[in-house]
């Protein structure tokens, strides 16, 4: 089940979207999320959906792969759609099924909200699919750099995040090992009442925590002897360079927002 | 010859929880010269890991002094000295900081403020030195233990250190990984004249050393060339250390009444003596 989930996974590639600077991508996504709320009629929602599909096309992510991975979220979208069909009671009646009636406004709003949701999920997924976690952390660090003025430990946060990401597979392996060791000792995780199952997880978590702390200590020593003294006076191995295409992304965003304002119906 | 590191009457005591104090290091002195390969051996709790921690300034001695590159190690010069020493620890996973091989090798360079233009060639160079040049973008969980340790060595080499300390760096590896690591260090030492201190209980590593230091109960028990050390077979076994197969066999042969002239640490030497032994009579 976990293998199928693509939310938050990175798929290496070489498309236009892949090669963008993480800063322009992050900035774009952040602003795009806000801009999505500008849409309020068929034209604007249509524009957003078309734009998102275009981005997916440019990123060369296969649609089948994308939708297959987002199935659990698609279910949520269909659910919202149905809720609107059932509970919004405005406008003309479209369908009278005796037990309940479906109204025009309900269908409209349901579709709009679903598109909004779908567009947000698709765009953020495209971001994580086309950008390696390390680039995302790098991009975040540089984008948040101005916040250092207000004493936000930007470098430390970014380092914490990258170390956390680096240790996920290591701790997964470890969990697997402990699980097998406990199973070999006769621990039963798959049957019994919920309470019993929760209790069976404890012997799994305790060794995992103990070893994680041990690892943290070793890692701290290894970092110290390699001269780590916090962000001051540090240089960076990963250089971000803002190129023409990144400026283009920002221009595209401005054009998109202008178009949204233009097509937006008066409210 | 230039002095690289020296310990001068160093002592260190650990406070244990029940208030009892135990001397982990008791009046130890020795000197390491430029280009030497030193092996420090001893069973668990003999104080050999405490020695490593003092050489890199993670612990400071209570008595005596640790001198690195002719400077007394203290809180002032510790970062400068650390930047000139490479150290590789036991657990391959727990010292891998970067998310890919090249990020990890660059970590010490970033910390020490090396400009970007110099970083790239240095990362590539040091990875080539440990035969890991083709692994730039590999993630740690796709590497074997031996490969991770070689990356750790590359990370140390990137700072172009004069001294490399291996703190049981091969003890968690499979035989193949261990051979890879030992071979890399051996090649490095021969091509670049790097000074190596390896804290170990692997006999193969001990045999490669120019000088062996045997630690027992926080005290320096013996120092000498590997073959001199292994001549003290029984004393070593008494403090819980293994002997190479050839040394053990020659001792048993002697006990059985076979005359053996020299001390042999490798099987080849022993076989050579045995098959020519008849001529010597």
Write the layout of secondary structure elements.
The complex is a heterodimer of chains A (267) and B (281).
Chain A (H helix, E strand, L loop, with lengths): L15 H4 L2 H14 L6 H18 L3 H7 L1 H17 L5 E4 L4 E3 H27 L2 H12 L9 H31 L9 H32 L18 H20 L4
Antiparallel strand pairs in A: 1-2
Helix pairs in contact in A: 2-6, 2-7, 2-10, 3-6, 5-6, 7-8, 8-9
Chain B lengths: L2 E13 L5 E13 L3 E5 L6 H8 L7 E6 L2 E2 L5 H5 L2 E4 L12 H11 L4 H14 L15 H13 L5 E5 L7 H18 L2 E5 L3 H6 L2 E6 L2 E6 L1 H5 L2 H6 L6 H11 L11 H10 L5
Helix pairs in contact in B: 3-4, 3-5, 4-5, 5-6
In words, what does this structure look like?
Chain A: One of its GO terms (cellular component) is plasma membrane. Chain A: It comes from Sporosarcina luteola. Chain A is mainly alpha-helical and 267 residues long. Chain A has 2 domains: 16-131 and 244-263, no CATH class; 153-225, no CATH class. Chain A is built from 10 helices and 2 strands. In chain A, strands 1-2 form a two-stranded antiparallel ribbon. In chain A, a hairpin with a 4-residue loop joins β1 and β2 (101-103). The radius of gyration of chain A is 24 Å and the shape is flat. Chain B is of the alpha/beta class. Chain B has one domain (3-226): Rossmann fold. Chain B is built from 11 helices and 10 strands. The longest helix of chain B is centred in the middle third of the chain and has 18 residues, at 175-192. The chains are: A mainly alpha (267), B alpha/beta (281).
Main features:
heterodimer; A: 267 residues; mainly alpha; 2 domains; two-stranded antiparallel sheet; 2 strands; 68% helix; B: 281 residues; alpha/beta; Rossmann fold; 6-stranded mixed beta sheet; 4-stranded antiparallel beta sheet; 38% helix
Oligomer: heterodimer
Element order of chain B: H for helix, E for strand: EEEHEEHEHHHEHEHEEHHHH
The helix/strand series of chain A, from N terminus to C terminus, equals HHHHHEEHHHHH
Spatial shape of chain B: globular
Task: Estimate what percentage of residues of chain A fall within beta strands.
Answer: under 5%
Average predicted confidence as pLDDT of chain B:
89
* Sheet having the most strands of chain A: 2 strands, antiparallel
**Head-to-tail CA distance between termini of chain A:** 44 Å
Proportion in β-strands of chain B: 15-25%
CATH homology group of chain B: P-loop containing nucleotide triphosphate hydrolases
> In order across it, which strands form the biggest sheet of chain B?
6-7-8-3-9-10
The DSSP helix count of chain A reads 10
The end-to-end distance of chain B, rounded to whole angstroms, is 43 Å
Shape of chain A: flat
- Rg of chain A is 24 Å
GO cellular component, one term (chain B): ATP-binding cassette (ABC) transporter complex
GO molecular function, one term (chain B): cobalt ion transmembrane transporter activity
InterPro entries (chain B): AAA+_ATPase, ABC_transporter-like_ATP-bd, ABC_transporter-like_CS, ABC_transpr_CbiO/EcfA_su, ECF_ABC_transporter_ATP-bd, EcfA_1, P-loop_NTPase
Membrane topology (chain B): Peripheral membrane protein
């Amino acid at each position: 089940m976990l293998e199928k989930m693509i939310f938050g996974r990175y798929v290496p590639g070489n498309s236009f979207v892949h090669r963008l600077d993480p800063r322009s991508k992050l900035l774009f996504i952040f602003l795009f999320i806000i801009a999505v709320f500008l849409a309020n009629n068929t034209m604007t929602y249509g524009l957003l959906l078309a734009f998102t599909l275009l981005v997916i096309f440019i990123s060369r992510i296969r649609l089948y792969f994308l939708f297959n991975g987002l199935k659990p979220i698609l279910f949520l979208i269909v659910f919202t759609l149905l809720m609107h069909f059932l509970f919004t009671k405005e406008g003309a009646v479209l369908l009278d099924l005796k037990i309940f009636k479906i109204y025009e406004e309900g269908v409209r709003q349901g579709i709009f909200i679903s598109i909004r949701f779908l567009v947000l999920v698709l765009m953020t997924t495209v971001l994580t699919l086309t950008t390696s976690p390390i680039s995302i952390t790098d991009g975040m660090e540089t984008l948040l750099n101005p916040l250092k003025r207000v004493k936000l430990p930007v470098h430390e946060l970014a380092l914490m995040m990258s170390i956390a990401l680096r240790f996920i597979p290591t701790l997964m392996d470890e969990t697997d090992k402990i699980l097998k060791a406990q199973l070999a000792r006769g621990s039963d995780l798959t049957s019994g009442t919920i309470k019993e199952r929760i209790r069976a997880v404890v012997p799994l978590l305790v060794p995992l925590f103990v070893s994680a702390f041990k690892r943290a200590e070793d890692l701290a020593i290894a970092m110290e002897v390699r001269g780590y003294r916090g962000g001051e006076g540090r240089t960076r191995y990963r250089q971000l360079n803002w190129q023409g295409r990144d400026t283009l992304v920002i221009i595209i965003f401005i054009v998109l927002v202008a178009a949204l304002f233009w097509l937006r119906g008066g409210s | 010859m230039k002095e690289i590191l020296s310990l001068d009457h160093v002592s260190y005591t650990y406070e244990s929880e029940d208030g009892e104090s135990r001397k982990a290091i008791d009046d130890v002195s020795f000197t390491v010269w430029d280009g030497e390969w030193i092996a420090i051996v001893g069973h668990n709790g003999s104080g050999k890991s405490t020695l490593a921690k003092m050489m890199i300034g993670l612990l400071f001695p209570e008595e005596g002094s640790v001198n690195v590159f002719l400077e007394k190690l203290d809180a002032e010069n510790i970062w400068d000295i650390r930047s000139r020493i490479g150290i590789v620890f036991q657990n391959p996973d727990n010292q891998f900081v970067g998310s890919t091989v090249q990020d990890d090798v660059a970590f010490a360079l970033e910390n020490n403020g090396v400009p970007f233009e110099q970083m790239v060639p240095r990362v590539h160079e040091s990875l080539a030195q440990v035969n890991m040049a083709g692994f730039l973008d590999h993630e740690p969980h796709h590497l074997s233990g031996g490969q991770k340790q070689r990356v750790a060595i590359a990370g140390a080499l990137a700072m172009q250190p004069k001294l490399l300390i291996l703190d049981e760096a091969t003890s968690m590896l499979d035989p193949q990984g261990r051979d890879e690591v030992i071979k890399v260090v051996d090649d490095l030492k021969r091509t670049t004249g790097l000074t190596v201190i390896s804290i170990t209980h692997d006999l193969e590593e001990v045999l490669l050393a120019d000088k062996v230091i045997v630690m027992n109960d926080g005290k320096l028990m013996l120092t000498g060339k590997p073959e001199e050390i292994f001549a003290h077979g029984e004393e070593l076994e008494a403090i819980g250390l293994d002997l190479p197969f050839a040394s053990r066999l020659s001792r048993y042969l002697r006990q059985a009444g076979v005359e053996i002239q020299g001390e042999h640490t490798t099987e080849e030497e022993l076989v050579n003596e045995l098959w020519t032994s008849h001529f010597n009579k």
